Amino acid sequence: MYINKNGCVNFILAQPFIVYSYFLPRISGQPNDIYKYQDFGAPLKEELSAWLTEEFGKYPLYHCLNHKENLRINKINKTMRNIAFLLLLLLTLPLYAAEEDMTLTTPTGNIYGKLLLPQGEQPCPVVLLIAGSGPTDMNGNTIGSDYNSNSLLYLAQELAKEGIATVRYDKRGIGKSADAGTSEEDLRFEHYIDDAVLWCELLAGDKRFTQISIAGHSEGSLIGMVASGKSDKVKSYISIAGCGTPAYTLIEEQLGKQATALQAEAERINSHLRRGETVDDIPQLLKALYRKSVQPYLISWFRYDPAKEITKLKIPVLILQGDKDIQVSTREAQKLFMARMLSSFYIIENMNHVLKHCESDNMLTQLETYKSPSLPVKRELIDRISSFIKQ
Predict the structure, then answer these.
(1) Fold held by 100-246+304-390
(2) What are phi and psi of 143, to 5 degrees?
(3) For the chain, which residues make up each domain, given as ranges?
(4) pLDDT tens, position by position, 92-113
């Protein structure tokens, strides 16, 4: 199906009477062949297939080359053209309402987010999406770089199509919430946890929502995990590409890949930080990582072992991990699952760290997906989250 240059709708089908009977008065006939359609834009393929599946039975569409019959509707009256146009227009409309700005007031300033609701006015579940570490904004993009995958934005949009609302936000000190940030010396990991708890309190007072879930991506997994244990408003928790290993161990392992001496120094420094002690004698090569101003934050971060924190949760838990994630290995998700085996646990084939389809572990190939905001997130990810929340 496509609209030609004359504004007419063209159908190329194996059994033409099926669609013809839809636009004109109905005539009898049962489809018994497989249909393909002339390409008129990739974004509409999935929606049109779904529509025809519902209307005429489970008959996927495809290019009709060398088929038994070939019907081209070259001339249709004005009414039929209007109907066809409206049909195509409806297929392109998003299945979610407009975004709403949300503001969370904290002692250090406002934190700004976006609420995305499904279409309709019925109460629905809502998911608080928490982004990963560093300058990652509410859409899953890295501020100040060309690593713009829109991963969390697309996750929110796809969940809205499933009837699930989402709130995503710029963490304190990031993006629109920059003014809520404290000085580096005063920042603590608990600030992020407390912010997530406050978001849940805010959502709990909104009668549009039937239940609250938290989904944390990457470092957001640990933030959401601890926040879920602190808030009685949270009814389920989802870890996406979250680590099961404490941060101090990950740092030591990463440095060990570069030099054994660096790993030994990191272990020495971390042992002090884990006891709540700051360290003055830092080797030159590690001064950026362990600078004096960031040590209080590291002390607060090192208090949390994901594999221990997840055992404290008394709510349903879903653990999701891509097998093509070059930042967080499947081993990390397995650690979380082994710590809490009552969790639902899935490894998603060919999904990378930014939740996109990728079949290679090659760094350059991977980075292309980090820089491709038009790529959708993995469908299985949406299906797993949707089923879990609706169960």
Answers:
(1) Rossmann fold (3.40.50)
(2) -65, 135
(3) 2-92, 100-246+304-390, 248-301
(4) 455 666 799 999 999 999 999 9
